[in-house]
Design brief:
Blueprint (H helix, E strand, L loop, with lengths): L3 H4 L5 H48 L2 E2 L6 E2 L3 H8 L6 E7 L2 E5 L16 E8 L2 E10 L4 H6 L3 E8 L1 H36 L1 H12 L18 H48 L3 H31 L10 E4 H11 L1 H6 L3 E6 L5 E4 L1 H17 L6 E9 L2 E8 L30 H11 L3 E5 L7 E8 L3
């Protein structure tokens, strides 16, 4: 049994191509059949019209136009032979200047117009509910009186159309069968041609199926058809992005495991010391160390979670909305006032315009601001000043965080955005992910982050530039 679904699966490119090619082929076959029908009828009529014309000339040869009022010399044998036909009924009628001279049927219809002398014409009519094809031939007169009165003798010969229809049907049938055979053969050739033409897709499918799941190398597209090259180039770009994301994740996992190993080991050590101690003061000190270590570990875990959320791979789709950056920055700054006061730091906010609109994700942008402000507080001196601000620069909306803290040397300003990198010489217990999170969130918003610092101990200015909402 023929498996139709195997060779013509639904939503198959091969099936679609074959179907559209057949849809274009069928109208051509239909037009060819229609044209064959009209041509068959045309040439059949030509053949039998010539036969009628010869019969009319034969009858005209039996008319004596020199005799008074014209006479017809038509023996009975000739008349019977003229009317004999196996398939059709034949009628004739000869009309002289003064009326019928001879007729096989006096009711043979006359045409609406008559031909000129020595001319003829064909017309269609009916007799006894049968369609007729009739020729009328005008036999020119020779007597002066007839010529003067423009009186001609008319020869009419008509016949039914059974032979014509039969021959036309035979011609059409003889044309139709080869055309259907050709259509079937063309359809088969189209099927195998489409299958052969799509072989590169089958080879590509086989190559991808045989690939190891860890093989993210580019697919060879140099030998592929030109129509497939843009698709394969885009696919290779996607593979490169996936490989890059996997490499980032693997590096992140390796870094995270390394960073988590130290505080976990410290916690375990402090807990073991606390279990061995009998002195309440030493137990209390060990518990205090455990509390500090667990706080640092909790902060590290939260930063790691924030980083995974900020990375493009952390969310399939970034939901954005129109945001007032000035209001969001002012609200976030207010959340850190108490923490700043604990270090006697003057934390303030300034905005050139209260309605600076951008398109972004409020949760991620608040995380970005939290990390910038927290860093500024951690690395500022007691009694220092921190100013968070928003402003517009041409087509950009800028968020700025300026402090007068320890500053960042020029050779370290690009390194601080790397994961787990911390400026040496500080006494802070951060995990080195804050600025990495800031950069990831900025990139997800098509924004840029820049640092300006005059050097160590001279403070720092962070600027995040967003595209203004038009």
């Amino acid at each position: 049994m023929f498996n139709f679904k195997k060779y013509f699966p639904q939503n198959s490119l091969k099936n679609q191509l074959f179907k559209w090619l057949l849809l274009l082929l069928f109208p051509l076959i239909f037009i060819s059949i229609i044209a064959g029908y009209f041509l068959a009828n045309h040439f059949t009529n030509q053949v039998y019209d010539k036969s009628l014309y010869r019969t009319a000339l034969a009858l005209a040869g039996q008319v004596d136009i020199e005799a008074p009022n014209s006479q017809v010399h038509l023996p009975k044998v000739a008349k019977d032979l003229l009317e004999f036909d196996e398939d059709d009924d034949v009628y004739f009628r000869i009309i002289g200047p003064n009326g019928d001279l001879v007729s096989s049927h006096t009711s043979l219809p006359l045409p609406n117009r008559y031909p000129a002398a020595d001319k003829f014409l064909y017309y269609e009519t009916s007799l006894n509910d049968e369609d007729l094809r009739v020729i009328i031939y005008a036999l020119p007169q020779t007597s002066a009186d007839q010529i003067a009165n423009q009186k001609n003798t008319y020869i009419l010969v008509g016949e039914t159309q059974q032979k014509r229809l039969q021959m036309a049907d035979e011609i059409i049938l003889s044309m139709l069968l080869p055309q259907l055979l050709i259509g079937f053969l063309v359809g088969a050739l189209l099927f195998f041609g489409v299958k052969r033409g799509l072989m590169p897709l089958e080879k590509l499918k086989t190559e991808l199926i045989m690939r190891n799941s860890n093989n993210l190398s580019p697919v060879d597209h140099l030998a592929a058809p030109s129509e497939l090259k843009p698709l394969l180039e885009s696919f290779n770009d996607l593979l490169a992005k996936v490989a890059n994301n996997i490499a980032k994740q693997q590096r992140f996992i390796a870094d995270a495991s390394h960073q988590l190993r130290t505080p976990l080991a410290g916690l375990k050590t402090q807990a073991e010391l606390a279990l061995r101690e009998k002195n309440p003061e030493k137990i209390s000190h060990a518990l205090s160390q455990i509390n500090v270590a667990s706080g640092n570990l909790s902060h590290l875990v939260n930063q790691l979670l924030s980083l995974t959320k900020a990375e493009p791979s952390g969310s399939v789709f970034l939901e954005t909305e129109s945001l007032n950056l000035s209001q969001l920055a002012q609200s976030t700054t207010a959340d850190w006032v108490v923490t700043a006061l604990e270090k006697n730091i003057d934390l303030g906010f300034t905005a050139e315009d209260k309605n600076l609109m951008i398109k972004g994700n409020a949760v991620l942008l608040r995380e970005l601001m939290n990390n910038l402000i927290e860093n500024a507080i951690l690395y500022s001196f007691n009694g220092g000043n921190i100013t968070v601000g928003t402003k517009q620069e041409n087509a950009h909306i800028c968020l700025t965080v300026q402090d007068d803290g320890i500053g960042i040397a020029a050779d370290q300003q690009t390194l601080v955005f790397e994961r787990f990198y911390r400026v040496l010489g500080t006494q802070q217990t951060g995990c080195g992910l804050g600025l990495t999170i800031v950069q990831e969130i900025a990139e997800r918003h098509q924004a840029t982050v820049s640092i300006f610092s005059k050097g160590e101990g001279l403070g720092c200015l962070f600027t995040v530039r967003f595209a203004a909402l038009s």
